[in-house]
Amino acid sequence: MRFFEDLQVGQRRGLGSYTFSAEEIKRFAAQFDPQRFHLDAEEGRNSLFGGLAASGWHIGSICMKLIVADNQRLAEIARTRGEKIVQGGPSPGFRELRWIKPVLAGDTITFSSVIDSLRASASRPQWGILQARNSGHNQRGELVFSVLASVFVPRRHNG
Fold first, then answer.
1. What is the fold, at CATH topology level, of the domain defined by 4-154?
2. Hey, CA dihedral for 135, 138, 140, 146, is it positive or negative?
């Protein structure tokens, strides 16, 4: 995580890739989204998806996992340089959540984040609000997941 003043609209960050296995798709679905096309390969093949499909919530959860891991990586880089560690705030929410194409067992999704907008918080001068378009593309380069997410980012000089 960086200070609000260090960020720019259009700034892109790669978050990493993740391969969705059939076993993980079924395990996540059994606990959180127990629909037939997420639980059974034959049901998935006979569905609109054409194969065992990951839950959209599973895809979003992996994106969040990779965002947190990247923030931890950036914090470690700052720590080794002797810089102040920036701790981000919570998210006030998201919009435009889209699951564009199915993510099937064996698909590898590469996630990224692009800053869409930055604004100072009117009620909390020590924070800025970042909006970023988080997205995932499959191994064929097809967009499969997109969400416009907001997060509080600390300001260096408290507004």
1. Thiol Ester Dehydrase; Chain A (3.10.129)
2. negative
